[in-house]
């Protein structure tokens, strides 16, 4: 590998996790980059995102999603201005795909704001009708063989489950019915694992093919997606996307295909990336062993001091 290949940089827009209004609202109010992006979002939607966020009690409401998008883009703006970031590749695991689409100019930021709002409404309507009892549980330190035994037992009882994410060794996301959650968490604990958090509604599950169809037929055709100006690595299988059609497919794959972060890491390593900027409110991806052991990681976002974490 040449020296130039070894110094390639990736920008990563993190997936969305639970967050409180106090920290998010403070960042939107005080950060100059966030204030600028928030004004663009308000204009695109015709309402005050901050006001709706303040009144929202849902961790994944339309306003919460828009705020997360705003803060992610604002963090990228800061990384460019204060760190001189000029990335070679872009990644947007899970919800981060939306910020990635804006960053690589496949859609203008105001269009991504409107797309995010429409998809949030579509998702809300879907889960009001179907899979109302579905949740996605995230957990760590669980050997694959033990997890396979637990899920096999679920399946033998006729219970539904889907993998929703492969994050690291022993680190998974699984979707299942809420009535099975407590038993599942107990089994994970008995296997030596540790439960982190549960998402409602559920995400990234093959069972949600109908949600994908609705997004594909009712929403995405309204938007003129362009070829990305920067290669994008898909979070499902690590494929490098360079065309509008492939990026559109990636945006749809997020509904019914699991995240596979190890494949993303393999692609970035294979492309010669040694430094990674994670821009946005991230409580997960910069902490993963697979991330820390392969890259010099710089986090830029709410609650961060923009300091690099040393590569182990």
UniProtKB/TrEMBL annotation:
UniProt-listed Enzyme Commission number(s): 2.3.1.39
Annotated Malonyl-CoA-[acyl-carrier-protein] transacylase small domain residues: 139-199
Keyword Transferase attributed: yes
Gene3D superfamilies xrefs: Malonyl-Coenzyme A Acyl Carrier Protein, domain 2
One Pfam family it belongs to: VinK_C
Any single Gene Ontology cellular-component annotation: cytosol
Molecular function via GO: [acyl-carrier-protein] S-malonyltransferase activity
Coiled coil: none
Record's catalysed reaction(s): holo-[ACP] + malonyl-CoA = malonyl-[ACP] + CoA
One GO BP annotation of this record: fatty acid biosynthetic process
Superkingdom of this protein's organism: Bacteria
Keywords: Acyltransferase, Transferase
InterPro entries registered for this protein in UniProt: Ac_transferase_dom_sf (IPR001227), Acyl_Trfase/lysoPLipase (IPR016035), Mal-CoA-ACP_Trans/PKS_FabD (IPR050858), VinK-like_small (IPR049416)
UniProt enzyme class: transferase
PANTHER family named among the record's database cross-references: MALONYL-COA-ACYL CARRIER PROTEIN TRANSACYLASE, MITOCHONDRIAL
The protein's name in its UniProt record: [acyl-carrier-protein] S-malonyltransferase
């Amino acid at each position: 590998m040449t020296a130039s290949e070894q110094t390639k940089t990736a920008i990563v827009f993190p997936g969305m996790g639970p967050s409180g209004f106090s920290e998010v609202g403070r960042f939107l109010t005080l950060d100059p980059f966030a204030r600028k992006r928030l004004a663009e979002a308000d204009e695109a939607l015709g309402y005050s995102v901050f006001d709706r966020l303040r009144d929202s009690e849902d961790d994944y409401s339309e306003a919460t999603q828009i705020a997360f998008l705003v803060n992610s883009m604002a963090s990228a703006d800061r990384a460019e201005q204060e760190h001189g970031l000029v990335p070679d590749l872009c990644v947007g695991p899970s919800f981060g795909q939306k910020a990635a689409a804006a960053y690589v100019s496949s859609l203008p930021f105001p269009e991504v704001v409107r797309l995010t709002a429409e998809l949030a409404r579509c998702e809300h309507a879907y889960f009001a009708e179907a899979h109302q009892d579905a949740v996605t549980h995230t957990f760590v330190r669980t050997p694959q063989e033990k997890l396979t035994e637990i899920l096999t037992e679920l399946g033998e009882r006729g219970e539904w489950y889907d993998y929703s994410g492969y994050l690291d060794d022993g680190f998974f996301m699984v979707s299942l019915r809420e009535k099975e959650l407590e038993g599942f968490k107990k089994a994970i604990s008995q296997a030596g694992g540790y439960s982190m958090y549960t998402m409602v509604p559920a995400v990234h599950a093959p069972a949600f093919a109908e949600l994908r169809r609705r997004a594909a037929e009712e929403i995405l055709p309204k938007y003129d997606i362009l070829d990305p100006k920067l290669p994008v690595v898909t979070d499902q299988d690590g494929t490098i996307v360079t065309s509008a059609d492939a990026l559109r497919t990636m945006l749809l794959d997020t509904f019914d295909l699991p995240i596979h972060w190890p494949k993303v890491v393999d692609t970035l390593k294979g492309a010669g990336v040694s430094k990674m900027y994670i821009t946005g409110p991230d409580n997960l991806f910069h902490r993963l062993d697979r991330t820390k052991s392969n890259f010099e990681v710089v986090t830029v976002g709410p609650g961060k001091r923009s300091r690099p974490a040393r590569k182990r």
